[in-house]
Fold:
Amino acid sequence: MRSKVRPRRYIARHWLVILRPLLRFSLTRDAFVLRGIGNRAGPVLRPDRRGRRRGRYEGAERRRTQVA
Structure:
């Protein structure tokens, strides 16, 4: 059993499309790994889902508030 977990690397979706022939999706890791050796070595890649910066949030401030 593996004692050290390989870190996930977040990459842009267009790189996943380009690298698709070299990668397979692992359901247990919920990420892409290299075909053939992905269970033992290599990167663990996930799509970068962070959105682009949208600008300043104009809603109500809810951080550091306490409920009475």
DSSP finds one helix and four strands in the chain. The mean pLDDT is 82. The beta strands are 8-11, 23-26, 31-34, 44-47. The first helix runs from residue 13 to 18.
